[in-house]
Specification:
Shape: globular
Largest sheet: 8 strands, mixed
Distance between the termini: 12 Å
Mean pLDDT: 94
Number of strands: 16
Low-confidence stretches: none
Order of helices and strands: EHHEEEEEEHEHEHEHEEHEHHEHEHE
Helix content: 25-40%
Number of helices: 11
Strand content: 15-25%
Radius of gyration: 19 Å
Oligomer: single chain
Amino acid sequence: MRIIPQSDVERLLPVGACVDVMRDAMIATSEGDVTLPIRQFMPVPGASGKMAIMPGSLGTAGEAEQACFGIKLVCKYDRPLINGKPDPLGTHVGMVMLFDSVKGVPLAMIEGSSLTAIRTSAASALATQLMAREDASRLAIIGNGEQAARHVDAMMAVRPISEIHIWGRDLARASEFAEATAERTGLPAAAHASPEDAAANADIICTTTSAKEPVLPGSALKPGQHINLVGAAIPTSAEVDSEAVQRSRFVVDYRPAAMAAAGELLNAIEAGVVTEGHIAGEIGEVADGKVVGRTSADEITMYKSLGVAAQDLAAAKAIWAAAEAEGAGQEVDLLS
């Protein structure tokens, strides 16, 4: 078994390469070649944290090259700013345990926070590649945390981004993020005082906040935009309102997960403005050509990302294979 640390994860699976990995994983998900129990959350007594438990399997043993199974364990803790900066630990710390499906033996223990960040932004990039207009070049990022930065890189991997617009609750922090983004990417980046201002002239919008209540109203959306909803992952949280859902062609990563935890969709259903039938399809169905991602240049398209274990397993398998090829990480013998 290999133990693969964060530094190797970042190096072995850059976001651009991960887009194709996510494509295969989401097609397998939509074809049913996966086992995906709904994620469970366990509160940590006496602490402001919880552990997320995501088991699953990908592919069929003996039939699919990528066949594997495993579990992701992630501890989510709210960490205060340190001298005005995010805690270097981040809010998510964890690991992915990867097993071989044929032999039932562990292949790797892989640092989970970077793996999750990469696969999440790569899944949004896949959705953008499949649903955004080909000429989409103006990007709005709603939020200024780690996933915001990851999504800048992910969108640049699939569309010719020419300018970046940013909103965060703290305008000073959003301005710092914009300056750092401009320096890192070489693209013009500007902070805005409201989500509406940031989204006003964007072709692609990525919401990457920890908001409990909607921060971007449907009235702010313009014809032809594509939106990736990334930050909210529980049924009581939502980043856009019911009008935004109603106005969009709405695609999800996995229907059962969306009906259990997609707060934006559940709010719209409860409000009576849409039904479950508003889900146009899963992104794997779009990738496989079974569902159309965009039907016209003026259509507003929306992808709801919740994340599924198949994404973690596919990313873990790709990282493990790359580590095996070059002997990266630390090999240990658990059975000796």
